[in-house]
Amino acid sequence: MEGRLVSPNSRTYIGSGKVAEIKSKINALVVENVIFGDELSAGRLRNLEKAFGGEVASAQMEYQLPRLTKMWTYLVRQAGGQVKGMGEKQIELVKRI
């Protein structure tokens, strides 16, 4: 088990040696993307972005995009119990209250 982490590094998910290795390969091979097979926290993304000098955050945003599709559905017209119309928008309801 030489050089293996027992648990993920709290700052970067990978060890400092692996960060240095990836950074040198990024520079030598002109790599545009580094992909991790696990979800990274915001702090780890920020630390990796600093270490690699790239846009790690944009990949995270692309990953989250499909999960945000129904996040604001409460702002569309609600099907109310009244016969008239489609119901009122959540914004109108809040204003009325």
From TrEMBL:
<dbReference type="GO" id="GO:0043022">
    <property type="term" value="F:ribosome binding"/>
</dbReference>
<protein>
    <recommendedName>
        <fullName>GTPase HflX N-terminal domain-containing protein</fullName>
    </recommendedName>
</protein>
<dbReference type="InterPro" id="IPR025121">
    <property type="entry name" value="GTPase_HflX_N"/>
</dbReference>
<dbReference type="InterPro" id="IPR042108">
    <property type="entry name" value="GTPase_HflX_N_sf"/>
</dbReference>
<dbReference type="Pfam" id="PF13167">
    <property type="entry name" value="GTP-bdg_N"/>
</dbReference>
<dbReference type="GO" id="GO:0005737">
    <property type="term" value="C:cytoplasm"/>
</dbReference>
<dbReference type="GO" id="GO:0005525">
    <property type="term" value="F:GTP binding"/>
</dbReference>
<dbReference type="InterPro" id="IPR016496">
    <property type="entry name" value="GTPase_HflX"/>
</dbReference>
<feature type="domain" description="GTPase HflX N-terminal">
    <location>
        <begin position="5"/>
        <end position="56"/>
    </location>
</feature>
